[in-house]
Amino acid sequence: MRDEKANIFNDFFASIFLSRDRNNHPSSEPPLHPRGGTPRPSVSEELVRELLEVLDVFKSAGLHDLHPRVLRELAEAIAGPLAQFYEHSWCSGVVPEDWRRASAVPIFKKGRKEDPGNYRPVSLTSILGKLSERIILMHIHEGPAGKVMLGGNQHGFIRGRSCQTNLVTFYDQVAKSLDAGVAVDVVFLDFQKAFDTVSHPVLIKKLGDCGVDTYRVKWVANWLEGHTQRVVVEESFSTWRDVGSGVPQGLVLGPTLFNIFISDWDKGVKSTLLKFPDDTKMWGDVGTLERRNRLQSDLDRLQGWVDENRMGFNTNKCKVMHLGRKNQQHTYRLGNSLLVSAEAEKDLGVIIDAKMNVGWQCGDAVRKANRTLSCIHRCISSRSKEVILPLYAALVRPQLEYCVQFWAPHFKRDVDNMERVQRRATRMIRGQQGRPYEERLRDLNLFSLHKRRLRGDLVACYKLVRGDQQALGESVSPSTTKSD
């Protein structure tokens, strides 16, 4: 029964992939020999030793049951041979077959659990293979391709950027237009199985176009070619299936390769666009017919890119939100479909409404946190602080603080409702019932949620002014930054 379930998952995941024939693109084949002047890559023993010594010993043993603790303890002895092996693989452009195999674990997203379409495959691969990916990744980031990703509007899988920086940038720019009395239309775009439908030949061509040298391009091409996976469900395995397209999720190289693949998506687009990593929103001032037509032209341009790169939109999740009092509520088209207008939309896990207020998000966060807290109350018999506090910190409080520097509550009722969750959690602990909230916080070594948000605001501000987000901070207008 479990084997059958695993095969059902794998059959579904395989049905999403592009076929090898459809994936064929002769012009994208990497050259057989390196270009003149391309330096021969080298992998130092010191680098491999450093990577082995920082392996997380609490991670799984990987596809071949080779535990990371073993590799970490033997780092001094095996670093030299591994460095030679990695260098030979890199120079020859040949990846061992075992490094191209993956055990995919279905991770539930949302919706009906009986529907395999509501699961995301996350790959478990060889640890030694992941180390080779990390070496390749380091060199890609140091080259021209790294500058391509850092210079764009991508906020996913890039150091110093996050969901929060994406949302803050969006809010700041839209607020400027709304404060000036200009109507704004925001289009939320969603790919159909984006990571699974990346065309390998198109990706390889883009790697070369953005400056990745031939050695790395050949290695990545061989790594993607012949990739196979099986699905693991409750210690049962499906049969092996070819992976005809996509960048496997859960691997080291996957996110960077996807970012490179869509780095040229907004080429020629005149409206403002932000990505994380495939979740995209595009907006523009639409006070005149000319500007509304420009936004429609940009949608047509994006649709053309999607068709050319063999991707697809999930039109059911693509929406438009009309902001501003004088908005004409224009109807937009995406391909052959009309975009549905939405009064509120969940963007990167945060609810944004047409009035740009945070009340819906506050209410949603409080409801989720209270549900989780109720589940802990019902299922956990212990009331000691050693049990309740870690559960609260790991499962409840993050729901109240996710990207909260973007949507922190303004109204007293929202502030009180959020604080009430922590009040309730501290009362669950043995010996804390009947004591004032401030005493409970001191005894449990906790801060109020309000103070935690204030500290988070200061940390976020420091990163924008002095930290690794200075480039983003320069574009944020002080006049539209929220103050508490």
Automatic annotation (TrEMBL):
<protein>
    <recommendedName>
        <fullName>Reverse transcriptase domain-containing protein</fullName>
    </recommendedName>
</protein>
<dbReference type="Pfam" id="PF00078">
    <property type="entry name" value="RVT_1"/>
</dbReference>
<feature type="region of interest" description="Disordered">
    <location>
        <begin position="22"/>
        <end position="42"/>
    </location>
</feature>
<feature type="domain" description="Reverse transcriptase">
    <location>
        <begin position="88"/>
        <end position="338"/>
    </location>
</feature>
<dbReference type="InterPro" id="IPR043502">
    <property type="entry name" value="DNA/RNA_pol_sf"/>
</dbReference>
<dbReference type="InterPro" id="IPR000477">
    <property type="entry name" value="RT_dom"/>
</dbReference>
